[in-house]
Amino acid sequence: MHMSEKAKRIVLLVLITMSILPILLVLRLPAEASVKQWALFASALTGYLGLGLLLWEFMLGAKAFFRLWFQDLAPVLSMHKWLGKYGMPLIFLHPLLITYAYGESWLYSLVPQVSTEFERQVTLGRIAFFVLLLVWFTSAIVRDKIAFRPWKYLHYLVYIALPFAFLHVPKTGSQFSEHSGVRAYFFVLVGVFGVFLTIRLRGLLGADRVDYQVTRQQQLTKDVYMLHLRAIGSAISPRPGQYVYVSTGLVSEDHPFSVVKSSQGGRELIIVYRRYGRFTRYLSQLRSSSRLLVSGPYGAFMRNVAASRPRIYIAGGIGVTPFIDTLLTEKQALHQLFYINKYRDNSPLITELRQVLGKRLVEAYSQEPVAAREGEVIGRLNAEVIASKIQHPTEYDYYLCGSKDMTQSLVHELQRLGVPRQAIQTEAFAW
Ligand SMILES: Cc1cc2nc3c(=O)[nH]c(=O)nc-3n(C[C@H](O)[C@H](O)[C@H](O)COP(=O)(O)OP(=O)(O)OC[C@H]3O[C@@H](n4cnc5c(N)ncnc54)[C@H](O)[C@@H]3O)c2cc1C
Predict the structure, then answer these.
(1) Residue with the nearest Cα to atom 28 of ligand 1?
(2) Which of 293, 347, 429, 431 to mutate for ligand 1's pocket (most ligand atoms within 8 Å of CB)?
(3) Average of pLDDT values for 66-75?
(4) Is the dihedral of CA 130, 136, 141, 146 positive or negative?
(5) What average pLDDT does this structure show over 113-123?
(6) Domains by residue range for the chain, with CATH
(7) To test ligand 1's pocket by mutation, which of 151, 244, 257, 431 has the most ligand atoms within 8 angstroms of CB?
(8) Percentage of the chain surpassing pLDDT 70?
């Protein structure tokens, strides 16, 4: 049965909601109507709901699993982020409510104690609390202020937090010890965690990746490179617009790159990348016969391309990669490219694109002081500039790729021209 991506998102939301409903049914309301008893009940509720949502957040990070269902992982990852930001605080309410219900000092949940077996079990929960607080703070509050790697490695602490959170329940939870429905719910959560932990560890250890060998590396501009890869064993076969994750070894970071060209059923792949940080610096030093691991393909960008409609491609710098093959090989007189770069001498494949596209290429330079060629746009690309370059903007389909800021601002500019949102597809090179 074919299901649209939007319908899949709705099904996923319904599944998430339904998965937390059972705990609302099995938790027993307090026998006495005292504030402390209600606080105890609310602590159990927030604890189990928080665990359920945290588990979903963990599951949604399993790229290899959700790739089988969703064409594009971006909505799955934004749900993952949303749950992390708003679901995790539920867990933080849990120790506060417990502290109040027990009539303890506010430091009770914060200071580890190991004097009795019960306290040792509570301390497992305290460890989970601290770790989750750290993960939440770095992801939801100060994500923009810390570098990518410290954030990423702190994020992996969720692998530790969830087991600690699970472990503290059996010997401390009064609802757990008294009601079999609560126990059943808890063990289902633990089982699902086990399955997704296996899926995610398989992914981390490279089970979903295949071997490729570098056959050629070309430097295109001062910091842009073209990497030619050939499959050693089995291959993955991306279609235009899709991307793959590239890693350098079994225990390595993996980074997404759009596939510029895939031939022989994916046995030959080409990616073009900008040297940016640690990983792309490493890639730029690879020589022929170096090995890389590749997984995917991922993404739904350019999936439903209407053959009969003229297209405008708008690329910000290295965001041209998903379009290069189509533009250089299709030679379709109706399609145009708006190519935005900072400087002329750092625009990947500009010579080839000029040759093939001629007047169908609009070059835009944000940092060059003056135009060197007729028709060049200097400065910001906005609705007025686009309207000055094409006669009937609403008659085109638009494909935008580049930074998040660029794609968001251009969607807005196109809508100002009356282009409907459904006629615009975007791919941002960061999540
Ligand atoms: C769907 C997609 C397709 C992309 N296609 C291309 C391409 O064709 N050519 C190209 O040059 N770049 C592409 N990128 C961007 C590329 O992935 C980053 O430039 C690269 O990962 C930077 O790594 P680094 O270590 O060199 O730099 P760093 O400075 O370490 O990372 C810079 C930024 O890259 C992003 N990033 C790094 N690793 C990941 C990751 N595992 N997942 C998501 N984002 C990450 C983060 O936003 C990070 O802040 C694409 C990104 C996405 C999301």
Answers:
(1) 277
(2) 429
(3) 85
(4) positive
(5) 91
(6) 5-204 (1.20.120), 210-298 (2.40.30.10), 311-428 (3.40.50.80)
(7) 257
(8) 99
DSSP codes of every residue in 197-239: HHHHHHHHTTTT-EEEEEEEEEE-SSSEEEEEEEESSS---PP
Ligand 1 first shell, C-beta below 6 A: 148, 243, 254-258, 271-274, 276-280, 318, 321, 429-431
CA of 409 relative to ligand 1 center, distance in Å: 20
Mean of the per-residue pLDDT values of the chain: 91
pLDDT value at 403 more than 70: yes
**CA dist 68 to 10, 65, 299, 322, Å?**
17, 6, 11, 21
- The pTM of this model reads 0.86
Ligand 1 centroid to residue 265 C-alpha, Å:
25
- CA-closest residue to ligand 1 atom 46: 430
d(CA 114, CA 118): 8
Per-residue pLDDT, 418: 95
User: What pLDDT, on the 0 to 100 scale, is given for residue 431?
Assistant: 64
What ligand 1 atom has the least distance to the C-alpha of 301? 1
The CA 288 to ligand 1 mean position distance, Å, reads: 23
| pLDDT tops 70 at residue 1 | no
Gap from CA of 429 to ligand 1 centroid (Å): 6
Query: How are strands ordered across the β-sheet holding 336-341?
Result: 377-378, 361-365, 336-341, 311-316, 397-402, 424-428
Condensed to tens digits (0 to 9), the pLDDT of residues 186-235 reads: 999 999 999 999 998 888 787 889 999 999 999 999 999 999 999 999 99
Residue nearest (by alpha carbon) to ligand 1 atom 30: 277
Mean pLDDT of 384-392: 92
Query: 128 in the Ramachandran plot: left (φ > 0), alpha (ψ -120 to 50) or beta?
Result: alpha
- The pLDDT tens digits for 411-422 are 999 999 999 999
Q: pLDDT tens digits for 164-184?
A: 999 999 999 888 999 999 999
The whole-number pLDDT of residue 332 equals 66
- Specify the ligand 1 atom closest to the Cα of 260: 8
Q: Whose CA is nearest to atom 42 of ligand 1?
A: 255
Q: In angstroms, what is the span from residue 284 Cα to ligand 1's centroid?
A: 14
Cross-strand bridge partners of residue 314? 338, 400
Q: Which of 78, 276, 302 to mutate to test the pocket of ligand 1 (most atoms within 8 A of CB)?
A: 276
CA 26 – CA 55 distance, rounded (Å):
19
